[in-house]
Amino acid sequence: MLSPGDTGDKVRELQSRLKQIEWFSGKITDTYGDSTRAAVDGFQDKRELEVTGVVDEKTWAALVDMTRTPTDDEMHNRLTPGPALYEKGSQGDEVREVQARLKQIGWFSGEVTDFYGDTTAASVKGFQEKRELPVTGEVDQRTLSSLEGMTREPTKAELTNEKPKKKDKKDGGSDAEAAGWDDRCLTGRALCISKQTSQMAWIIDGEVQSTFDVRFGSERTPTREGSFVVGWKSRDHVSTIYDTPMPYAMFFDGGQAVHYSADFAARGYNGASHGCVNVRDKAGIKALFDQVDVYDKVIVYS
User: Fold this and answer.
1) pLDDT tens profile 228-260
2) Which residues contact 183 (CB under 8 A, 6 or more apart)?
3) Residue ranges in 112-250 assigned as alpha helix (H)
4) CB 63 within 8 A of CB 49
5) Where are the beta strands (DSSP E) in the chain?
6) Which end of the chain, N or C, is more open, meaning fewer C-beta atoms within 10 Å of its C-beta?
7) What is residue 205's predicted lDDT score, i.e. its pLDDT?
């Protein structure tokens, strides 16, 4: 039906459908070139079809079944914004929520307020550009839906910039501040991971819910440090690179994840991961896996 060298609107539709399921990236064109062939190869291999790089009837039927008919705008790379729901000058609780959600994924810094000013507009522009949305600095329905899909409902502490109250240890002060956890973990929902103490805490609004012994990567395969979010979760994951089980995996940066390690449980610190954060408490991480949501914070620090 379609093969390398072909041109026309049907190629645009092919690329657009592949783009919907993240097999094609970049601008849509009317030419079936190397990037289109590579995308078709990947799709065919994933769907256990004959890998030819050529779109036959089976490949097309499988692709159509998994996607919707692309719009003319999508097929011609036109980004048309919708009416603004919130823009510069807007005020109210909805603006607080937009800022708090942007803050969860690192696009907004500073205090959350109820006013939509220059800082909010700049944050929205950055988010829109990254997500290939019309870059207006205004929140239309498409921008809001994309933001909501990537984040969770903000907590009261996130909306009001509340800092957790410091407790005296004699009064049961196992809260994150008294225990010395990183300041970035003190608001919202966070997996807080200290390389210095080889400990991980699950913290909600500054209150430590549970703690775990953890192990990190070696000098050759270090665990990356920084502020991340849980990108996706896999309960019964098996590494495709190392062919090893990674149960209760919560991925936060590429292939690096927090997960249970039978090796860590058996050998302790006489070993290392390939960059992941290993946990040896199987019952504990099983329970944690069900509590942590996609887009919750992950803070890794020394």
Assistant:
1) 999 899 999 988 777 789 999 999 988 899 999
2) none
3) 118-130, 141-150, 156-160
4) no
5) 189-194, 199-204, 207-215, 226-229, 232-238, 245-253, 256-260, 277-279, 297-301
6) C
7) 87
Instruction: Give the pairing of strands 297-301 and 277-279.
Output: unpaired
Phi/psi for 7 (5° steps) reads -135, 165
Give the chain's mean pLDDT: 89
Nearest to 156 by CA among 99, 90, 102, 100: 100
Cα separation, 287 vs 272, whole angstroms: 24
Only one residue has tokens 């590429």, namely 254
Across 270-301, b (16+ Cβ under 10 Å) vs e yields eebbbbbbbbbbeebbeebbeebeebbbbbbe
Tracing tokens 């200290």 back to the chain, one arrives at 194
Looking at residue 173, what is its pLDDT? 44
Q: 84 to each of 107, 112, 153, 210, 229, how far by Cα in Å?
A: 19, 20, 21, 42, 28
- Please tell me the distance from the alpha carbon of residue 71 to that of residue 155, in angstroms, as a whole number: 37
Q: Are 294 and 215 in contact (CB under 8 A)?
A: no
What are the tens digits of pLDDT across the range 91-134?
A: 999 999 999 999 877 788 889 999 999 999 999 999 898 887 89
Residue 65 amino acid letter: D
pLDDT in tens, 144-170: 988 887 777 888 888 998 875 555 444
Separation of CA 202 from chain center: 18
DSSP 183: G
The CA radius of gyration of the chain, in Å to the nearest whole number, is: 23
SS3 state of residue 192? strand
Nearest alpha-carbon partner for 159 in 202, 101, 227: 101
DSSP string, 234-259: EEEEE-TTT--EEEEEEEEETTEEEE
